[in-house]
Amino acid sequence: MQMQTETLKKPPYLVIAILFFGAFVSFLNNSLLNVALPTIMIDFDIEYSAVQWLATGYMLVSGVLIPVSAFLITKFKNRTLFIASMVIFTLGTALAAFAPSFTFLLIGRMIQAAGSAVMGPLLMNVMLVSFPREKRGAAMGIFGLVMITAPAIGPTLSGYIVEYWDWRVLFEMILPFAIASVVLAVFKLENLMETRNPSLDVLSVILSIAGFGGLLYGFSMASSEGWDDVAHVLAPIIVGAIGLVWFIVRQFRLEEPLLDLRVYKYPMFALGSIISMVNAAAMFSGMILTPAYVQSVRHISPLDSGLMMLPGAIVMGLMSPITGKLFDKFGPRVLAFTGLAITAYSTYLLSNLDLQSTYMYIIVIYTLRMFGMSMVMMPIMTNGLNQLPTRLNPHGTAVNNTAQQVVGAIGTALFVTIMNSEATKEGAKLVAGMDPAQLADPAAQSLLQQQSLLHGIQVSFVVALVVTLVALVLSLFLKRVNVSPEDVARIEAEGK
């Protein structure tokens, strides 16, 4: 017998724990492979343009499947969907772990992405129906602990394994946990959400794949291929933009849209979504620029650079449930403004890093930045979702996840482009002021490269600071969604 999608009287903690376990395994996998790409490139004797598809392809598959998650969550029981997703993820992990060639490794990675894409939206929707709106902050804070901590510790764990073991261990260690998650789900997982039989608009699926896939591919390739590459950058972005516009127009005309964009008629959801997108762009800047500074400018090893980011990941994870409880008490505005102010200040400090900045100083600034960001994402997302009627929860979570995925790719490409262009300009300026003898000195050449790239990273962080300040100003307009029984009844009535 299915349970109603209205809030359950008693949270199903065992079900949530099983979902958390599976989600943690799949989220950890998201960032686990990035540090290992150079090693894999050597093992299979392939170019970087090929090996980077292990990251780009994963992001593409996730990006095009997340918009479909609202349909899947509405149509299929959460038990069936979770088991199917974890089985697919497990098969992909096994194929990648024992891949005899790069082709099989890439296919395994794509299968992993297909399995994990729906995990975040599914878990978030279960949390939304398991807790009353006035207690969702604390509950979503625990969800944030999984969503944030797992991918954050990935690079550190990966750096250690790649340095002392073999890259296949990255998949082999995930495999038993993925299998355990499937077994637990088969025997213990229950259905919590009511389902219905929505129709699937095939054209919307095609437009979604073309739109989001084109944008994700084009912007992700821009950082390595350059903005003047027609085949890999400009053409996909143009096709993606056309597909996305067509997709959006079509959703408003359908009675049962694939992705119900009417969620944006709710002002606090719309504002929270915009702030989340702006904040995601700033967050991705730190994830790209900080390792570039640490490894390429300061020549710190991958393991040490991963360890450098670990305190920030731990702080972010520990703060997530605390932030959730603070949200239930104070609402979103105080937390978002405070968090974004801290993020802006730490981003300013990052823009002033130099060749003499100490290892501990870098750790403190990066950790401070993660501390600030931990106060922003989950409170504003939870506040926005509180304004949606229950039937729109799957669409609200899908919209948020899709938007952050696309903006993350765009932000990464833009920040890398700014970094590279500014580094090139600075390099040309420094070369003009050097004599031939200096240019022939290997030590001087190395210093020139360091100084040029440092300048590019500093300018990129200044742009990230401006982006963060935009989010800071927008946070002043946040209002707490009233979750009294009368208001909840009104929201549900308006949503029918």
TrEMBL record:
GO terms for cellular component: plasma membrane. The chain crosses the membrane at residues 12-33, 53-74, 81-107, 113-131, 138-161, 167-187, 199-219, 231-249, 269-294, 334-353, 359-381, 459-478. Signal peptide: none annotated. Belongs to the major facilitator superfamily. EmrB family. It is a multi-pass membrane protein. One of its GO terms (molecular function) is transmembrane transporter activity. Keywords: Cell membrane, Membrane, Transmembrane, Transmembrane helix, Transport. This is MFS transporter. It comes from Caryophanon latum.
